[in-house]
Amino acid sequence: MADPPRGFLRRHARKFVISACTVGGAYALYKFVQWKWASRAAEEEARRLDVARLEHHFESNQRTCDMTARSLLPMLRTSLFEHVNVERLIAALKSSSSSNKSEVWNEVKTKTLTQLLVAVYSACFLHVFLRVQLNIIGGRLYLESAEKEDEEEKTKKKKGANFLPITQTVQTRYLNLVECLFDTGMIGLVKFVDDVVERRMDEIGLKERFDATRFSQFVEEIRRDIEGDDQTSMARLVGASLPTNGGIFNVNSQSLSHAEKDQLQGLVEATRDFLENPDFCHVLGKCIEAGFSVAVQSVERKIDKDAVPLAKLLPMVVVDVVPTLLKDSSEFFNRIMELPTLQKFAENVYDAFRR
Known about the structure:
Layout: H1 4-11, H2 13-83, H3 86-95, H4 101-149, H5 151-157, H6 168-175, H7 184-201, E1 209-210, H8 212-227, H9 231-241, H10 258-275, H11 278-302, E2 308-309, H12 310-325, H13 331-337, H14 340-352
Antiparallel strand pairs: 1-2
Helix pairs in contact: 2-4, 3-4, 4-5, 4-7, 4-10, 4-11, 4-12, 4-14, 6-10, 7-9, 8-11, 9-11, 11-12, 11-13
């Protein structure tokens, strides 16, 4: 008589094998799915951390833009008042003989409005130009930081001097480009605006009265002459203050290594491309629109309900309005900084250079 257990096993061996394979396969599948989910969760967590780090770095970069703009406003004010010195003309009026007071008054008319217009234009140029510069640099530094954390990816991406870490010397030379706005850029902008204002002011007498509506309309008329109605006209205005052919891009590359010169040239060319892009003019136009809205309202608050003669209005602009606009805590400054269009443009610049 056969051993019952052994006979049972022999009769059901195939079932046992199939069951063992099924259980083993199910367990293997379970472990695979578990590993896959863990791997996916780890990847998702890594992506979330990357997004959080990117957002933190970008927001920190925008705060740097704002602080830099605030720190440069005193230089902008000094340059503006130096190149459009209305105070000197007013002092000359008090000491001038009656024979040439008329000429000095005509110059005061022109220079006062030129100063107001250039204050708005130059401040807007400063904000948008800094957004381009600092987000180009910020995007590149983020890329370098990401590459350092992944040596294998770094080796794949890094090709020649363009992907070498940007040295502090190159960063400093590049960021010094903004100083052109206070020198040759200011000279070009003042001349561009002053020529238009002078033609318009020839038609206006000192006794002509302005109420809030009339002043707003007058500024709009002058702005149309300066900015035009298309991108080409705005590009000419940009070119007057930020000349892309020479001028602002005459950077000092002395004492730099060959690799550093390549880096600096790459940053300069990237900046030139952004300045010549229609998006730059569009964003700048939005900033200018917001800036003039605040500037004109500031002048209007100085006007009583009744219209005032131009001769009375001009000192208000020189003494109260322009200096207030160029304070770092002014409504004018904050309005420009908070523009959604400017923020979106900054994101696009940053994103282009972090990939």
